[in-house]
Write a structure and sequence with these properties.
This protein has 307 residues and is of the alpha/beta class. The protein has 14 helices and eight strands. It has helices at residues 23-40, 58-69, 89-103, 113-117, 121-127, 129-133, 135-153, 165-177, 181-184, 209-219, 235-249, 253-266, 277-280, 299-305, and strands spanning 12-14, 19-21, 49-54, 73-80, 108-112, 158-160, 190-191, 200-201. Helix 2 crosses helix 10, helix 8 crosses helix 11 (235-249) and helix 8 crosses helix 12. The protein starts with 11 loop residues before the first strand and ends with a helix. The chain binds iron/sulfur cluster and zinc ion (ZN) (2 copies). One zinc ion is lined by residues 285, 287-288, 290, 297-298, 300-301.
Length: 307
Amino acid sequence: MRCRTCGSKAVINMPQHRLALCKVHYLEWLPAQTQRDIAKYHMFDNSDRILVAVSGGKDSLALWDILWQLGYQTEGLYIDLGIDDGTTYSRRSGEYAQAFAGQRSLKLITVNVGKEYSETLTQMAARTLRGREKPCSVCGLVKRHILNRVSVENGYTALATAHNLDDEAAILLANTLDWSLEHLSRGQPVLPSGPGFTRKVKPFCRVYERESAAYSVLRGIAFMPDECPHSTGSKQLYFKTYLNEWEESMPGTKLRFYNNYLKALDSGAFPARQQAPEDLAKQRCPNCGQPTTSGGLCSFCVLINKS
Ligand code: SF4
Ligand code: ZN
Ligand code: ZN
């Protein structure tokens, strides 16, 4: 397999793009591809202050590296969830994130959940019925709250997460199987800002997981090699396995699924959100001040105030 650009030995073949590239040209291609999507979906520009959510894994560090190389104003946020029982997962993930930021002299904010909220994610999850079965739903709630809080408090104008195409396709498949119109109506790569919440963007939404992994490896980025111990058996992994099988026999399946979904969204195939952001902003949690639809404490404050 030869690089399409220079003819030397290719290190990656991407049948979905009918493209093979050498290391040098791949390391140019992915940032250019990411920049095209940033512009296509009007995610942000050079005047924005971007907070990048980093986990210490391959996707988020690849994203931060690319945004940094593209010259955007970025700072990182690492949420130390305290998933450390026997695995030191959170501690080691944080070390990778800190090393990455230190090597590039980038600012990394760390929120330690155990210290700030008196309980680690593991302890919070163990206390609730929903979390005891599967900590991920509690984890999602905690991360969403902290990401929004830190981005609003510090005046960032965009919050970037490293959701890749495999993540987006798996979420889309799950929401389609459930016919969850509520979720299907807000799967855009950009969710606009409003009073009390920052614009959310997903610059890797059309980047395959193997593409971001290859980028990190070829760039020599040291990233956390282990998956979260709670990820095994998750529904998302199950859907990813099926999508990978389909992709194998029909290259481009994930990309077509997601692209055509975005076209359907654009054409108004799904009803608008029940509540416009400006309506949502009228209701604030009396404890933390974040927008909420509950009419009382937000779900996060209900979680942390439960004794
Ligand atoms: Fe949180 Fe679940 Fe992801 Fe682990 S796998 S970081 S518990 S969402
Ligand atoms: Zn080449
Ligand atoms: Zn609250």
